[in-house]
From TrEMBL, chains A, B:
Pathway: Cofactor biosynthesis; coenzyme A biosynthesis. It catalyses: (R)-pantoate + ATP = (R)-4-phosphopantoate + ADP + H(+). Phosphorylates (R)-pantoate to form (R)-4-phosphopantoate in the CoA biosynthesis pathway. Its EC number is 2.7.1.169. It is an enzyme of class 2 (transferase). This is Pantoate kinase. Residues 64-145 form the GHMP kinase N-terminal domain. One of its GO terms (molecular function) is kinase activity. GO terms for biological process: coenzyme A biosynthetic process. It comes from Methanothermobacter tenebrarum. Pfam families: GHMP_kinases_N.
Length: 282, 282
């Protein structure tokens, strides 16, 4: 018995942090794009007495956090959880959210826990909020598309929407990591992010196009001063070739929406927009 | 230039009607299953001066209603809208909702209207509510899965959830039509539906399994006295072979969830659960 889940990666373009003492109601509003590369999570029963989490050989806090939360309500048997990452961690692809969601959905199905999709996803969202690793990736990764997070929070509380678009490529290049928790826990960064981010959703809803999403994202990266030198330099190189480009929030990563897979970026990650969201493989 | 949309059919198992003077907030709560057969809608520009709607050769009120609502806000050019039905109309498959949603999504993309997915789907929901042809199919068809409609209304207002399940077949047999509008507009039927339907969602959320969904659905069909003789007779024949069976709300149609595609039903419609929801074909 084995369950496999694919959770697509999510790149945030702009956002705003909404505080709440309840982790299921805390989160971010904003917009991002979900891509057809992400995290494949396999969950199976383990013969050993120890719960085991393997993440491409790296120990993984978020997955343990999900197991800890599940253990509060259910007596979990010994399990193996294995994540295969198709995009790098710490670079703005929402990998922690994808690992968390893959784990909670996978275990729910394997053990036939009395959880709905929203229930399992809420555990993943709570794990993210409590560790400070993400605020809106889980709900976006569950839904897919160029995803607007209109109301913050876990699935069931948060409200999402999507932009209608022609098929598009998402072309990315990673320069390095940024620590999401450090940025979103720093009061000065938060104030700046919330000041710039608020109001952007309304501007996107009134003109819901991929071009406008990318334009607002770049404006957000510039005005919040989160824009890195690497992203700025490469933005100037590819600006003319693509529909729009900006910085992945939060990673030293440039991402662009484009009609064609080819750009001037060296060694890019090339994906398509994923409109389906998290799903079981068989 | 042509846009093609696939909208999966939705079979309601049980429901409850929630009134509101705002059609976007009116709708139904309940649960149903979305299947991988449905309606394929093609939208393209027409050379003729007349707007043209073709529905497998039959004139279609719901599609005209969507065009009428779109015309309130946008000056539509001459268009052709063509629906290809993979399931019968009037038999509890939510075909009117699928035609409405395919039309609004397709036209939004073809004309690059300033509408998000929720915005386009809201127009389809409003068309359904105003014609009385459906109350919750649009949001379910947009989301897919064994779909719980926890809060009524159009996408953006309504809240949905899904049951986590192994891959399953949906086996159906159609005996005849029922007129949804007649049933949901009759005060006596409404009272009975609401009396029986309220409380069922809570029972499903606390034990969210395909078995429980089907059990509650049959209980609903029996207690509301909507259960037809055809469905009752065939229920007794296939009960042992499947996970559960009940009557499609609203059609003289039996539907069953099953691990295998084969049952004792003659000339069945055999589908799988569709977890992706409405989508553009390229």
């Amino acid at each position: 018995m084995k369950v496999e889940v694919f959770v697509p990666a999510h790149i945030t373009g702009f956002f705003q942090i909404i505080e709440d003492s309840n982790p299921l109601k805390m989160g971010s509003r904003g917009a991002g794009v979900v891509i057809n590369k992400g995290v494949r999570t396999k969950v199976k029963f383990s013969r050993s007495d120890k719960q085991r989490v393997i993440v491409d050989g790296v120990n993984d806090f978020i997955t343990w956090k999900v197991l800890e939360i599940l253990n509060e309500s259910f007596e979990l048997p010994s399990l193996k959880v294995y994540h295969e990452l198709e995009v790098p961690i710490g670079c703005g692809f929402g990998v922690s959210g994808a690992c968390a969601l893959g784990t909670s959905l996978g275990i729910s199905r394997l053990l036939e826990l009395p959880l709905t999709v929203n229930g399992a996803a809420s555990i993943a969202h709570r794990a993210e909020v409590e560790l400070g690793t993400g605020l809106g990736d889980v709900i976006a990764e569950l839904n897919g598309g160029i995803c607007l997070r209109l109301r913050e929070g876990a699935p069931g509380h948060g409200i999402t929407d999507r932009i209608i678009h022609d098929p598009l490529y998402v072309v990315c290049k990673v320069f390095g990591e940024l620590d999401t928790a450090t940025v979103i826990k720093d009061p000065k960064s938060r104030d700046m992010i919330n000041f710039i981010g608020s109001g952007m959703l309304k501007r996107l809803v009134s003109n819901p196009t991929p071009e406008n999403f990318m334009g607002l994202s770049y404006e957000f990266a510039e005005k919040t001063k989160l824009l890195t030198r690497n992203v700025k330099e490469h933005f100037e190189i590819i600006e003319e070739e693509v529909i729009g480009a900006s910085m992945a929030m939060l990673g030293d990563t440039i991402f662009a929406l484009s009609k064609e897979p080819d750009t001037s970026l060296d060694n890019p990650i090339i994906a398509k927009i994923d409109s389906k969201g998290a799903r079981f493989i068989q």
